[in-house]
Amino acid sequence: MAAALQTLGGGIGITLHWIAFTPTIEQQATEEQKKKWLKLAQDVAIVGAYAQTEMGHGTFVRGLETTATYDPSTQEFVINSPTLTSTKWWPGGLGKTANHATVMAQLYTRGKCYGPHNFMVQIRSLENHQPCPGVTLGDIGPKMESNGNDNGFARFDHVRIPRENMLMKFARVEADGTYVQPPSSKLAYSNMVYLRGTFVMSAAQALASATTIAVRYSCVRRQSEMKPGEPEPQILEYQTQQYKLFPQLAAAYAFWFASWFMTQQHGSITGSMEKGDMSGLAELHALSAGLKSYTTAVTARGIDVCRMACGGHGYSHASGLPALFGGAAALCTAEGENTVMMLQTARYLVKCFAQSQAGKRLTGTVAYLSAVQPSPVAGNRNMSDLGTLVAAFQHRAARMVRHAAMQMQGEMQKGKAREDAWNSCSVLLIKAAEAHVHSFVVRNFAETVQTVEVDESVRAVLTSLCQLYSLYGITEHAGDFLKDGYLTGRDIDAASSHLSAMLARVRPDAVALVDAFDLHDKILRSVLGRYDGRVYEHLYEWAKKSPLNKSEVHESYYKYLQPFLKSNRAKL
Amino acid sequence: MAAALQTLGGGIGITLHWIAFTPTIEQQATEEQKKKWLKLAQDVAIVGAYAQTEMGHGTFVRGLETTATYDPSTQEFVINSPTLTSTKWWPGGLGKTANHATVMAQLYTRGKCYGPHNFMVQIRSLENHQPCPGVTLGDIGPKMESNGNDNGFARFDHVRIPRENMLMKFARVEADGTYVQPPSSKLAYSNMVYLRGTFVMSAAQALASATTIAVRYSCVRRQSEMKPGEPEPQILEYQTQQYKLFPQLAAAYAFWFASWFMTQQHGSITGSMEKGDMSGLAELHALSAGLKSYTTAVTARGIDVCRMACGGHGYSHASGLPALFGGAAALCTAEGENTVMMLQTARYLVKCFAQSQAGKRLTGTVAYLSAVQPSPVAGNRNMSDLGTLVAAFQHRAARMVRHAAMQMQGEMQKGKAREDAWNSCSVLLIKAAEAHVHSFVVRNFAETVQTVEVDESVRAVLTSLCQLYSLYGITEHAGDFLKDGYLTGRDIDAASSHLSAMLARVRPDAVALVDAFDLHDKILRSVLGRYDGRVYEHLYEWAKKSPLNKSEVHESYYKYLQPFLKSNRAKL
């Protein structure tokens, strides 16, 4: 199924049925509810949308305005959209495709609000697909990409559903309207960790696709003269081109490995949670939020770098790159806006820092926060040693977390409320959290290339790629490493010259490194990134299929241009 | 005309007739040729394209493959596309609209190639718009944006045109085939300077539009709780939102002022050139290449920052931001690919550096290169003083130019060919050239706010904006300032805290600053950026007009979904 959806690309009306509607039933319905709906969903006897986001609220779920008010006299919930901004907005497939939706609404019972809960609502007739009474539906209009998916809106005018349509695996409302608290809300966190892990994987895949296209095309495209009179070189010979593409290629590998880590950790945490051990969840949740934010942001920018590296042709849909960019751009604001996600990570780090100050020894992905020395000793560091590079990233992150936390403490000591201090330090906090995530990605990359079971020749190439990734990060963020003297200007020069050397070293393996992603032409959908390299012939064939080329003289000529030109000529 | 084209947005088939075809006649045709074609073009009795770029060559014009071979026996040129990659590719309006084109082709006469020259070629019949014999035309297919413009392809199979159709204001071919050199090629440079100046202005306008949309929407949108129990604040109150938008807003002003400088300098240089004084041209040409590259790159990224700052709604075409991004993205690769442009600037800077080493005193925009001290003295700098900030940017640029040039010299001394040394230092060279352009933009911004004729209260706001722009640049590129100790970690902390203060100071004037761009709703074409702030009502109205909403049940239901669901239900 995943492969089929992938081949279709960009998403269609039924995509969210599979990746959101059905899993919601699996995860939030009782066994009895599953018997009723899960098979219907799995066999696509009904088709569903996941209706959470509203016109006025996205990431801030507590702010949702749709209400589900329990009426004990009929044992029904009344689903209602009290304001314009409460209109459900954006859910994929909601506009035209879905006949059911899980609707997130503020639960009211016995006069009290218990916050957002999920309800199963039929929205269209199973007979004729007309909207159900009280339900207003529509498509929200064209978007940057993913226009094969009818992202939709829905308004509910006091729509009544049976009490049993509340998804009650966790919280429940009894027949008399009594609200029964869920035993633990931690499981919801675990699902979120999983979902964000899939974003990391999507980012990795998108960046892998873009680098495959750009690296392959850069071996086909020849341009300019490197030396007078010599033939035009493949553009991948230019250092500037390598500097654009290889860090993206390395990041694609780094993000794959980060997504492996997330998958493996989620599995192990789920196992522990089933045994009642919730200890690792908060750490993994914080990491997943930051990783989702970091990897999607780097990926979207990276794809655009790849597009520009393909010159004008990158701008054509023939390249596949505008669609990849549009897809990755959506990842940055969907399912938790990236800035809000990174602030979640920051919040956890500030808490860890305070614990560390209070003498607690930190473990796992944040262990380094208490291990790093506040006053570093500068020295001649070996900037090609992976251990040195990892340590530098950890030092940077620890310093920035400390700096942001201390700044916040300082403002509170001067009398600012905690919330105001948080807001006025939030740029520092975001940067500290990014540095933390970045250091995790570097460390995980380094550990993976050291331990992954591959030929030693492959390990050598991956090690170069990991060095390249790390050195690029250091030179791009040199200020963070120089600021407290941990690295010196000489270290940065050394990093910069090692990086140049790594660009040259990766060059001969670049095509093999993208081929290893094993992305079939049918998945890439790119004339520039074709495996066989026959770019120009197929660019011509692709263009000939343009809708405008169906006739030699386009209809607009007869309608507009001919009379316009004629009247202009008559005036001469 | 410009205003009309602007209102249409994105470009249509006739756009390039106005901004490229007609100006080419104006600039490159003889008086006799102008008599023949200019009025036809100006009155749109003919409609033209500017056919330069080919499938296989863009920015590297010398590499073009289309040939124009002179045949003295008939006094004709033979226009030919000898290879697939010589197919003209991308020219706006070429595919379906134009009936004439200025075709850039390698001029061959008497067995010798004289490089690319421009030729007027009729490509479609004036009677029935059919392609002329030997001419193959078509649209190149859908692109990231600007799909209202039929960017096209053209192939020529030995198409004969009269000798008089070579645009001969500069170079000429006489009846017997004698090639007559142009008196000076400098005028072509002057046109390029002008054209690149228009790119700077386009970048400024695009960034102004995006910031207008995002700042206005950020005052309408309310989200989350800053303090428990308080109403949701306008999202512009969040420091993270200010940090996203205000540097873009400041950059929009900085780029307007840079484009004023370019316009004014181009005017003054043109005056000098008419008197035979070519002295300022090389400097202005180098600056224009770098400014085109820098401003378009920052603008494209900045628009995407604005899009993400509008959350999910930024992704909808209702926001206008995807179209603005697509337009700005095109500016980065069109009319001289940005990396190649920046390397042109670098080449000039390296030359200046060598001249300065040889004792020449540099003037104008590069004067600071010889004035800056190699070994700076660190001290407690006043990081809120504009003069200090400008000096810091100039020091950074001078250091980086010197570093790149010395690195190159070092490699050549070790035996590398100049071209190889150039390539292996090209990343350093690009960064140095960017630093030079950045320092120019900062200095020009600072000088403009000090001298522009405005109320002192307006000057105060602009000064804050200029400080914000400069401080943001320093914190984002802190490594460049810290590396040789010119700024200290303490200076960076001071810059960072002044920047926070500036974000808060600009906040109350933010809406006035975008309103001052005076972009009418008809130009912005954005539901989110509406002047009246009635975003949500109009978002709903806009969505209702989606083509998918023409019928309550979409035709795809009857065609695909109904039978699919039915057969799935039958299997249950």
Structural class of chain A: alpha+beta
Interface with most residues = A-B, 125 and 124 residues
Strand content of chain A: 5-15%
Rough shape of chain A?
Answer: globular
Question: Element order, helices and strands of chain A?
Answer: HHHEEEEEEEEEEEHHHHHHHHHHHHHHHH
Radius of gyration of chain A: 27 Å
pLDDT average of chain A, as an integer? 94
User: Which oligomeric form is depicted?
Assistant: homodimer
Characterize the main sheet of chain A: 6 strands, mixed
| Low-pLDDT runs of chain A | none
Tell me roughly what share of residues is in helical segments of chain A: 40-55%
Distance between the termini of chain A: 64 Å
What key attributes describe this structure?
homodimer; alpha+beta; 3-stranded antiparallel sheet; 19 helices
Q: Could you please describe the fold and organization of this structure?
A:
2 copies of one chain form a homodimer. With 572 residues, chain A is α+β, with helices and mostly antiparallel strands. Chain A is built from 19 helices and 11 strands. In chain A, the strands form 3 sheets. In chain A, strands 1, 2, 3, 5, 6 and 9 form a 6-stranded mixed beta sheet that branches. The mean pLDDT of chain A is 94. Chains A and B meet through helix 5, helix 6, helix 7, helix 8 and helix 11 of A and helix 5, helix 6, helix 7, helix 8 and helix 9 of B.
